[in-house]
Specification:
HTH luxR-type domain-containing protein; Serine Threonine Protein Phosphatase 5, Tetratricopeptide repeat; globular; transcription; 24 helices; 433 residues; DNA binding; disordered N terminus; mainly alpha; 4 domains
């Protein structure tokens, strides 16, 4: 309908203002011109209060994609004010759902959860049709799943993900697949997760641009599942779309630079991101940024022990209050290295609550001995170090050669290496041998 209005009235300001509402319908935001309309311009439009409130909601969505969280919250508040008289339920629902997503991106997960619980009550109270109510509940379950995943509350995430499985619209299906893939990555099932990512890439045409899914494909990159061609394609898209150079994409770009061993460029980008995230009190981005910076410094063989400890302490400080755990799992190899290098000295000067949170993230990243390898993988690793062939390992461990290959690939993935020589070197660095 919006497309028809644009064609019929190409110069009407009111239609151009409404055009941006397509973002709310699941249209790939990277394919559209990302502009907002000032409050003064909105007031001059010949539209009723509800229509103006919708435009403010669209403004908030644009601000959200551009990391302008303060401006987004202000637009939502203005939209709610214009909606006070009519109390349009759609506006009420999406204003507060977007506000919850803003809190989520800012790392204010406790605020997001509290607001989502209110939203669930509103869905029950509003006089929606059964099909519309169903879609709103599915959207609710998808949104709250994303928060549970960031907190590594995997049982709760599995439950809400199951409740969101019966979706019909492409927009909801895309969000569901996104969460499903992330759930599998955080459950240490990277092969199954990547199959979901490939399904997402193949079926979700509105999300073809990698710039709108960097929060997911970072897991693919960490698990060595993205080709150099895909990485280079992302970099080209990043430079061609300045309005989408948000923090999620900056983090992913930095991760690509790290993978390609351009450490100085990666460090420069992360430092720039941390300036902004700290200044704007964006907890989640600060946690991700500090952990990525530590990873880069370790790859550069930095001897600045004080800096590394301070950065890790900062990550715990910003993460513990809202139970932000997923970034630590993403960089679990870094945590293992820190644990082996510094032991309890890593956290000895931190507050008790941060020390306790450190113990909690170690539990999800390591086993009791401080590694990410299973008992069988450790046996295979020892055989590799002794120079055994796959056939010899299969015979001595009483398993098939196919199983040996699977264990070797898992060891390579977990230690982020790709050969027998480098896996032995890395294992010795981590005191696994």
């Amino acid at each position: 309908m919006i497309d028809l209005l644009e064609k019929e009235y190409p110069h009407a300001k009111e239609i151009k203002a409404v055009e941006g509402l397509k973002i709310l319908l699941g249209i790939d935001p990277s394919s559209m011109k990302q502009t907002t309309i000032t409050r003064a311009e909105i007031d001059r439009l010949k539209l009723n209060q509800t229509s103006k409130a919708f435009i403010l909601l669209k403004n908030a969505t644009v601000h959200y994609f551009q990391d302008q969280f303060g401006e987004a919250i202000q637009s939502i508040n203005l939209s709610n004010q214009l909606n006070e008289e009519d109390q349009n339920p759609f506006l009420t629902y999406f204003n507060f759902t977007l506000l919850a997503q803003l809190y989520e991106e800012m790392g204010e997960l406790s605020k997001a959860l509290a607001l989502l619980r209110k939203i669930k009550d509103w869905i029950r109270l509003f006089q929606f049709s059964p099909s519309m109510q169903k879609n709103y509940f599915i959207n609710f379950y998808i949104t709250i799943t994303g928060i549970y995943l960031k907190q590594f509350k995997m049982e709760k995430a599995a439950n809400t993900l199951k409740k969101a499985s019966n979706q019909e619209s492409e927009h909801l299906q895309a969000a569901y697949l996104y969460n499903q893939a992330e759930f599998l990555y955080l459950s240490n099932q990277p092969e199954s997760a990547f199959k979901i990512v490939q399904q997402f890439e193949h079926e979700m045409s509105n999300y073809a641009n990698s710039l709108v899914k960097s929060g997911l494909i970072k897991y693919c990159l960490k698990n060595n599942q993205l080709s150099k061609q895909y990485q280079d394609s992302f970099i080209n898209s990043y430079h061609e779309n300045p309005s989408f150079q948000n923090m999620n994409n900056q983090l992913f770009y930095s991760l690509i630079l790290l993978k390609q061993q351009d450490y100085r460029a990666a460090l420069t980008m992360v430092d720039h991101l941390l300036i902004n995230s700290r200044r704007n009190k964006l907890l989640l981005k600060t946690v991700e940024g500090t952990l990525l910076k530590i990873t880069i410094l370790l790859e550069m063989n930095s001897s600045d022990e004080r800096l590394i400890k301070n950065l890790y302490g900062e990550s715990l400080y910003y993460a513990c209050e809202n139970t932000i755990k997923a970034p630590f799992y993403l960089y679990k190899e870094t945590l293992v290295t820190l644990h082996h290098s510094y032991g309890t000295h890593l956290i000895e000067k931190l507050d008790p609550k941060e020390q306790q949170f450190h113990k909690e993230v170690l539990l999800i990243c390591c086993d009791d001995s401080g590694t990410m390898l299973t008992a069988r993988e450790k046996e295979v690793l020892m055989e590799i170090a002794n120079g055994a062939t796959n056939k010899e390992m299969a015979q001595s461990l009483f398993i098939s050669e196919a199983t040996v290959k699977t264990h070797i690939l898992n060891i390579y993935r977990k230690l982020e290496v790709n050969s027998r020589i480098t896996v032995v070197e890395k294992a010795r660095e981590l005191n696994l041998l």
